[in-house]
Amino acid sequence: MNTAHAIPRTTTVSDQRVHTVVPSPVGDLILVARGGSLVGLYIDGQRHLPMRERLGDRDDGPQFDDARTQLREYFAGERTAFDLPLAPQGDAFKQRVWALLREIPYGQTRSYGDLARELGDRNLAQAVGTANGRNPIAIVVPCHRVIGADGSLTGYAGGLERKRFLLDHEAKVAGTWSKLF
User: Fold this and answer.
1) Which of 14, 21, 85, 115 lies deepest, with the highest CB count within 10 Å?
2) For residue 101, what pLDDT band results from cuts at 50, 70 and 90?
């Protein structure tokens, strides 16, 4: 193969993933950005945590300032919605599910079946659960607000204790808390 004429691919800073770590009441949060958008928010130790090299280099610089501030406000009970540029990576179906997650009001929950019906097919509940479990931007894209059809807490990549904490936190702030779980 003649490589004399090959043009090397250059990578700009905006093409590279970088990450930072932010402490929180549910454990360290690993924030991953690419091109100025948040592409990942993982709870340390969660299932489906990307391999370390997929996080990019550590960068505790100002590009994460808005996310740090909004997460601090969220956990302090001062923020009920996030306003951050997001770019989760996934197929078209996952993108539709993740868009529905962002529509679930703060302090409220929906079942997998509810989301499947919103997608037009109640038989998609299991596929919705799979997409929900693969949400790469925890908390900001509130996959923790999805529960079982009977109102029970079901799987959460970050663990059920963290899911319970997040739901209780939001319910208390929203005034809808009744210790259902």
Assistant:
1) 115
2) very high
The separation between CA 35 and the C-alpha centre of its own chain, rounded to angstroms, equals 18
Share of the chain above pLDDT 70, in %: 90
Considering only CA atoms, which of 47, 24, 142, 167 is closest in space to residue 86? 142
pTM over cut 0.85: yes
More confident residue, 180 or 63: 63
Overall fold of domain 13-75 = Double Stranded RNA Binding Domain (3.30.160)
What band does 176 get if pLDDT is binned at 50, 70 and 90?
Answer: confident
Cα separation, 42 vs 56, in Å, equals 14
Where are the domains positioned within the chain?
A: 13-75, 92-174
Annotation says 143 is catalytic = yes
Choice among 31, 115, 143, 171 that is catalytic: 143
Of 70, 152, 139, 68, the closest CA to residue 101 belongs to: 139
Do 13 and 59 form a contact (C-beta atoms < 8 A)?
A: no
**Residue 39 near residue 87 (C-beta atoms within 8 A):** yes
Give the model's confidence band at 95: pLDDT under 50 very low, under 70 low, under 90 confident, else very high: very high
Tokens at 111, concatenated: 């079942």
